[in-house]
Design a protein that fits this description.
single chain, alpha/beta, TIM Barrel, 8-stranded parallel beta barrel, binds ligand LARABZUK
């Protein structure tokens, strides 16, 4: 089970995610209570070993802008939310970067097609909101064989059940490992990674 811990902003939370065994860590580089600057990411990046993917998260920014910001932050992965096209995927790959393409569960069937992204992500209606949804319904989307992350309302207590119900390749969490919005809880980070990996 691939595990990404998102919305990190402090050395302690990055270190905890890495030590707990996360496969990827996310830095929100768009308007959010979890927003960090490229300069902050550059300070945090030395804590992330090369075996862990460090990802810059964007909402509706054009792919080219996201790539430029991610590059300024020293990142090689971007996570793009919102409606995206094959051209967006090409923009990221032409820049030598990797892409997590995120859609909401309510996206059109066309948006579930494989556009050549490196990893796909299926989220709640509002990314980063902590809202849960009917995870088993994703099985209708025909994602077998794809590398995709389940997100939205996951937390240490439900991640094992949710991932199993959805048949997920991996999971992504932010709200469910926080003490309050934007403030990570180190014990919850560890509990989440351990529950997901168990
Ligand atoms: O975290 C945000 O505020 C955010 C803002 C804009 C786009 C994406 C954002 N977060 C994405 C994520 O953290 C994860 O992909 C996922 O949505 C986490 O969901 P949850 O665990 O329910 O917070």
């Amino acid at each position: 089970m691939f595990v990404k811990v998102c919305g990190l902003s402090t050395p302690e939370s990055v270190q905890e995610a890495v030590d707990a065994g996360a496969d990827a860590v996310g830095f929100v580089l768009t308007a959010s209570p979890r927003e960090v600057s490229p300069e902050q990411v550059r300070i945090l990046l030395p804590l992330v070993p090369s075996t862990v993917n460090a990802v810059g998260v964007f909402r509706h920014e054009p792919a080219a802008d996201a790539v430029a910001t991610a590059r300024a932050a020293g990142l090689e992965w971007v996570q793009l939310h919102g409606h995206r096209t094959a051209d967006d995927v090409k923009t990221v790959h032409d820049a030598g970067m990797h892409l997590i393409r995120a859609v909401t569960m309510g996206a059109t069937q066309d948006e579930f097609a494989d556009l050549g992204e490196d990893v796909f992500l299926i989220d709640a209606a509002v990314p980063g909101s902590g809202e849960s949804w009917d995870y088993s319904s994703v099985r209708e989307k025909g994602l077998d064989g794809r590398e995709w992350l389940l997100a939205g309302g996951l937390e240490p207590g439900n991640v094992a059940f949710a991932a199993s119900a959805a048949g997920a390749w991996g999971v992504d969490v932010s709200s469910g490992v926080e003490a309050s919005r934007g403030v990570k809880d180190l014990a919850k980070i560890r509990a989440f990674v351990e529950a997901a990996k168990a």
